[in-house]
Amino acid sequence: MTAGAPVAVPAPPVIRVDGLTRRFGDVTAVDALSFNVAGGELFGLVGPDGAGKTTTLRMLAGVLRPTAGDAILGDVSVARDPEGVKHEIAYMSQRFGLYADLTVLENLDFYADLYLVPKRERAARLERLFHFSNLAPFKDRLAGKLSGGMKQKLGLSCALIHQPKILLLDEPTFGVDPISRRDLWLIVHDMVAQGVTVVVSTAYMDEAERFDRVALLFEGRLLAVESPQALQDALGGEVLVVQVEPARAARDLLRRHPRVKRAALFGDKLHVTVASAADDAPLVEQALRDAGLVPGSIAAEPPSMEDVFIERMTEAA
Amino acid sequence: MTQAHAAPAVVADKLRRTYGDFVAVDDVSFEVAQGEIFGFLGPNGAGKTTTIKMLAGLLLPTAGRGSVAGLDILTQSEAIKHRIGYMSQLFSLYADLTVNENIAFFSGLYNVPRDKRAARHDWAVQMAGLADQGKRLTGQLPLGLKQRLALGCAVLHEPKILFLDEPTSGVDPLSRRRFWDLIDALTQQGTTVFVSTHYMEEAEYCHRLALMNRGALVALDTPQRLRAGVREPLLELHTSDGPRAVEALKGLPQVVETSMFGRSVHVALHQLEGAVEAIAARLAERGLALTASKPIPPSLEDAFVSLVRAAGGAPTG
């Protein structure tokens, strides 16, 4: 693997998605998606519920046939050989099948048998998975008695008990508390460091910055495929964080201001989206002062992925 | 309108709930002002739900007192149930009923007086942005509209206190902002809002956050002051192998905690002085390269993890 920063020269694609489409009756759940994922890349499918993330991953995993288009994983086509794809990948769906009445260790053993992991390799793989999951102290606990976060970590460990080339994870961090989430990311990065290509879906915009590149999905369509940094740079706007009392009146005022694209209230502070922080901050401050609202502070912040997503959604509409 | 000296909307006074030897909620005290958006954070099993159930009159405390909208949770739990509303991501609107039919159903369930039903119905469809769409099947609405309709249904009886459980998880960011505008409008009319979430983007909308761990309240403050209160300086490192670097830095005396963020490593330190040198030396010992490092400001998630750690770590189950 190359050094810390995102891979500069992309490796040849390991996943090639070309016009991938899935319809359910009248509903087009996934609408002609095309993108590539490079070997060893950590790739995010980012979008709200109903964006087509799960349907896309199910097609990549060979468990759902595309209505049109294709995806090539390694050199196997999901349209022509959905069974063949399953040897290339590990896939963790949102309802990964853990056996509630088996212990943590028994679940791992079960999946090792299922994936034909040679006995002599098991101890080393288990040790590695336990190392990052922090599940070793609970290896004799019934899976049904684990917390939500620990269940997710066990599901991921089971999916990784064999050595896949490609890892597909459907919302692995959904509903998981931040501490378990950190363990989950470590397990994922351990795979990335070994050269595994990883595709992860998430509805959490703040997780988008963790990926080398993201595909932003909305209502089955692709809004953008880029690195998070490139998406933020391309936004052509900045966010002013304004402390002002009363914030609500300031928000309503600024929403009518010609230089303000958006204004949103977060607790007691305002996020104001403008074209240029340097040019527009003084105008925003003046507008507030003219209305008798004296801001405590105005600070420029880079746009979040939430800002990026809203901008792209609005453009596409 | 919110009044500075109005009686608190919610009072918890040494609330305690035990199940046999297990202390689910351990002498928790706080007050919530009328019109406040109050966030409840904590890992699974921290006692959030048990606390909310006691306040909602669904569960009697083992010890302690409390009041909701001026009503005693020990003696007036029936009356409390009519003063509160509840909505979660899983809030069950009937997918095969129309918008109008769902509103009529919940009006009946919440005993909205007959002479008020028409007015509340109109208010709910207006608020949800569904004015001309009363005859649409609820199951066919986009998720963002469904959430707004669910909110409308949860407040048909004009509750004084509204409990929300991860209300906007999975919703697109633009719909989420609109949803929180609606919440803000409700608080302006004096409704007090309790939000329980794992979701830091959602926590940012709260005026104050209560952090629970192992049944105890470990912090209570504004999002901004919680972030500012993180004592451990944070460094972002770019290394040749993130997961190996995380492993190598464990146990280094300067280091409190390490985690992966994208391909970089985030390190919480006891103190910044001399830390970079110690980190570089340790990484070099393990054959790992440190290509860049810079101090970073703490996120709300960093604050959460730091406070939970200081309080003795997440529950182990």
Question: How would you describe this protein?
Answer:
The complex is a heterodimer of chains A (317) and B (317). Chain A has 317 residues and is an alpha/beta fold. Chain A has helices spanning 53-60, 82-85, 104-114, 119-133, 148-159, 178-193, 228-233, 247-255, 277-290, 305-316, and strands spanning 13-24, 27-38, 42-46, 68-73, 76-77, 89-92, 166-170, 197-202, 213-218, 221-226, 238-243, 260-266, 269-274, 297-301. Chain A is built from 10 helices and 14 strands. Chain A has a 6-stranded mixed beta sheet with strand order 6-7-8-3-9-10, sandwiched between helices. In chain A, strands 2-1-4-5 form a 4-stranded antiparallel beta sheet. In chain A, strand 12 and strand 13 form a beta hairpin. In chain A, helix 3 runs parallel beside helix 5 (148-159) and helix 4 (119-133) packs antiparallel against helix 5 (148-159). Chain A is globular. Chain B is globular, with a radius of gyration of 23 Å. Chain B has helices spanning 48-55, 77-83, 99-109, 114-128, 143-154, 173-188, 200-203, 223-228, 242-249, 275-285, 300-310, and strands spanning 10-19, 22-32, 37-41, 63-68, 71-72, 84-88, 161-165, 192-196, 208-213, 216-221, 234-239, 255-261, 264-269, 290-296. Chain B has 2 domains: 10-222, P-loop containing nucleotide triphosphate hydrolases (Rossmann fold, 3-Layer(aba) Sandwich); 231-297, Alpha-Beta Plaits, CATH 3.30.70.
